[in-house]
Amino acid sequence: ARLAHVAAEAEVKVPYADELPSRQTQLEALRDTPEFDVLVVGGGATGAGCALDAVTRNLKTALVERSDFSSGTSSRSTKLIHGGVRYLQKAIMKLDYEQYMMVKEALHERANLLEIAPHLSAPLPIMLPVYKWWQLPYYWAGIKMYDLVAGIHCLKSSYVLSKSKALELFPMLKKDKLVGAIVYYDGQHNDARMNLAIALSAARHGAAVANYTEVVSLLKSKDQQTGKERVCGARCRDIITRQEFDVRAKCVINATGPFTDSLRQMDKQEISNICQPSAGVHIVIPGYYSPDNMGLLDPATSDGRVIFFLPWENMTIAGTTDTPTNVTAHPIPGEDDINFILREVRNYLSPDVEVRRGDVLAAWSGIRPLVTDPNSKDTQSICRNHIVSISDSGLVTIAGGKWTTYRSMAEETLDAAIKSHSLSAEPCRTVGLMLEGAKGWTPTLYIRLVQDYGLEKEVAQHLASTYGAKAFDVAKMAKVTGQRWPIVGKRLVSEFPYIEAEVLYAIKEYACTAIDVIARRTRLGFLNVQAADEALPRIVHIMGKELNWTQEKRTEELESAKTFLYHEMGYRSRSEQLTKTSEINLDYQEVVRYKNRFHKFDKESKGFITTVDVQRVLESINVQIDENALHEILNEVDLNKNGQVEIDEFLQLMSAVKKGQVSDSRLAILMKTAEETLDIRGPVTVDRSGGGV
User: Fold this and answer.
1) Is the pTM of this model over 0.85?
2) Cα–Cα distance between 665 and 594 in angstroms, integer?
3) Exposure check for the chain: N or C terminus, fewer CB within 10 A?
4) Nearest residue to 408 (alpha-carbon basis) of 196, 45, 109, 107
5) What is the pLDDT of residues 7-47, one digit of tens each?
6) CA 583, CA 580: separation in Å to the nearest integer?
7) Where are the beta strands (DSSP E) in 340-484?
8) Which residues, 6+ apart, have CB-to-CB distance to 460 below 8 Å?
9) What contacts 224, CB < 8 A, 6 or more positions away?
10) CA dist., res. 641 & res. 22, Å (int)
11) Which of 235, 208, 206, 245 is nearest to 24 (CA)?
């Protein structure tokens, strides 16, 4: 890839190296260009890959995406860049050459992706714990074969660990019956940012790319020689302004993932579906559940699936499930799937580590666009790889495949499109072509950000690993904090390194909504729904000021982002752990203890407490909490939303905490701390007569 990179860079012109064209400029280019060579529909990994491949072959290229870049499956993956250990296992067991070649191709693509976006990706060691002696040589042989197939693209050689060494590297692992472990290497990346980097790279090379632009219908014209109807572009609608316009193109590529069939049916109504969607749910739990730089693979779950347990963005990600689903733009993670993943995680972790439902900070569902080959006689068999098909009217469809192979899928698609539409194009140049932010990035770049701008180290590391060399552009936009340290860079929320300047930079990267910022420009919504919810008012304020939003538009943005977090990012599942119907599962002594704690706040024995009661106790122990924050704390537990917390609601909370359904309850921790302080000090009266000392 290094040699290819030199060749690719030498040959490709970058017209917008300094500044990205605005979204408005891109829409004008779509509207005013008489005819493009290629129009790509879909802004996921595959669609963006096709646009980058086409534009670097000197084809006049356009791309439209009806939502945001990477808003679908491409942002909801397991975050791995992998060849597929389990595919290799199947290839060997069934002597399946096609499956073997699929793994080999993916391993080549893995090496290329790590090379062209080193800031967004890195090798990750993954441990495979072994609990039966006979499995050790079996798994070792399989993993060594994985290294062998990778050949020169092998990241690092796999190795075997003794029981004690495995526990030293992964102390949370279950000790019982553990005989050892095998560690192998795969790649890991920030999927939505990687997708965005591909789309922005296409834009910099001159492609007209626009998000929030949907295809209303396909344009067709009669071929003069054959008399057949041919697809010659698309009628598009800007979702933000509702304006419609035609985009004409010699070739239209359908790269819409799970929505493949809806575009195919625009081309030919009576065509049968080829997409068989499958939902994969992932959950995010706190970082302390896994070591900083070691993942875990459960090769055989209770129902035969594979579960990954990986450190990602200082959190731990666990998944995935595999259940048939309907195609939807807004998939929702199910409680059953969340609990299935938690059960599997419990099986591998030490009994000392209590895996609590309340520790699930976010959960999401992504739809895998599994496909059946329309050219195959047996339409029931699901194609394990991707397929490229060309309809009678010339619509090119790329479907299936996986994240890792997006580039080779794009190359194959463009080769087919160029051949079938007789386009004049140069050979593919995307092997080794550095993506947005990669050129000029070094592992120590963050140090310059700290030294030159006075950013916190954690913030500087985050900016360098998210934006690469473009991190300096973000740092330049950061406002002075007015503190001794950090000098610049005000955080959106205290426990995450995302700063306010990133919201402004996100607008330059075509972010149009608050959801774009919390889900794809930053990954806050995927990491912690409560933190994202907390950051939303500030994000909407910054975007509203920059984009001149009316008050009505700001309210609408806030509500739609909250709805997104509630349904698609698992906030609903999290908040429903404490409901009016929750059983109180406490023994007699616990009930007495918690009632006593409650009555320390409810001095008048009203049977409920309000912010005034809590504030009075906090003042007596010299603790200051903002009134709005206190209102929020009580509101989390106030199930009937009457502005007060009844004794039953408090007991339900403590029962949910005991069962692990709720964790980090601010009211529970605050009341316990206050009680302990009061017990140490003894009773303190707050009703002093003369306000004496």
Assistant:
1) yes
2) 15
3) C
4) 109
5) 555 567 889 988 999 999 999 999 999 999 999 999 999 99
6) 9
7) 362-372, 382-383, 386-390, 396-400
8) 446, 447, 449, 450, 453, 471
9) none
10) 45
11) 208
